[in-house]
Amino acid sequence: MLERLEVEVFLALVEELHFGRTAERLHLTTGRVSQVVKKLERRIGGPLFERTSRSVRLTPVGRQLADDLAPVVEAMAAALRRAEDASRGVTGELRVAFLGEWTAPVLLRAVALFGERHPDCRVDVREVQLSNSRASLLDGSVDVLIASYPFDGMARGPVLLTEQRVLAVAAGHPLAAERSVSIEVLADNPVVQYPAVTSVTFKRDRTPDHTPAGRPVPRGPSGGTFSEMLSLVAMGRGVLPVGEHSRRYYPRPDVAYVPIHDAPPIERGPIWREGNSTARVLAFVRAAADAAGPAGAGPAGGGAAGGGATGGGAPPSCVVATG
To answer: How much is the pTM?
Structure first.
């Protein structure tokens, strides 16, 4: 078994690649850092770092050990956080976010119900964009995000919202006059693409490479935000499958929304980083499921897993910050 100090020194040196900075960060002497690394290398049976007078670099063995240790350390840290949460109840601060205007109402109902149940936990509410939604979860600036499924590499809760898919086309496009279209029309039109940072599985679901019949779908230009993508549609640069509530939240005279009669519905719900499955996060997910029951679907439509009470406005005991 590795000692805790060996793991801490090794992973800190992996990030810093500098013995002096590693020593400062861990409040150790440089000599002590070097001593721990050498002891670890003797145990491994080979060098973990290549050292010169000017640089420190990981060896292939060192990189492999770092890659293997990182998830283990994260899992241990998450277990400790969950134990701490359980021992003191749901307190502290929870950062929640929504992606897309139509997810905000269900998020705020969840915040209200969560506040009633856990008045000692401060809730910070914010909006994220396509470009930073994943990064916000990874860097910890957001604990729970209400967004569309699928979302690669994240834990997910129950479906809170569902909506029919529609095709956004330029107002003057021939398809704009249709009562509905088949998903197969994507093979006949360039499809506007989501930003490169967007989840691969999400993009495959929303803007597939092939239709269900196997026909290739031509790729159109990419937009950095949803509004930019709709502007590309309005310019006639491509079409874009979206949720039906884009009609309400993004009404534009230069864009028409045509129902897609043979596509599955879009599903949305809570998403969070698996390593951040704290008591606060899980309690919020439960509140979101309860608040978005049959009566809580509201203007965004759709059913939700879990029933129960629906929240109204935030009670005085729930501190809600927006930013």
So the answer is: 0.62
Q: Are residues 29 and 64 in the same domain?
A: yes
- Helix pair 19-26, 30-44: axis angle to 10 deg: 110
Q: Per-residue pLDDT tens for 49-95?
A: 999 888 999 999 999 999 999 888 888 877 776 676 665 567 889 99
Integer Cα distance of 120 and 20 in angstroms: 41
- Answer whether 180's CB lies under 8 Å from 261's CB: yes
**248 vs 103: CA distance, rounded Å:** 13
Alpha-carbon distances, residue 177 vs 4, 108, 165, 167 (angstroms): 67, 37, 17, 12
Domain of residue 224, CATH code: 3.40.190.10
Structure tokens belonging to residue 185: 């029309």
Which residues, including other chains, have CB under 8 Å from residue 222's CB and lie 6 or more apart?
192, 193, 194, 195, 196, 229
Strand partners, 147: 269
**In contact, 219 and 187? CB cutoff 8 Å:** no
Distance, CA of 131 to CA of 278 (rounded, Å): 26
Question: How many domains does the chain divide into?
Answer: 3
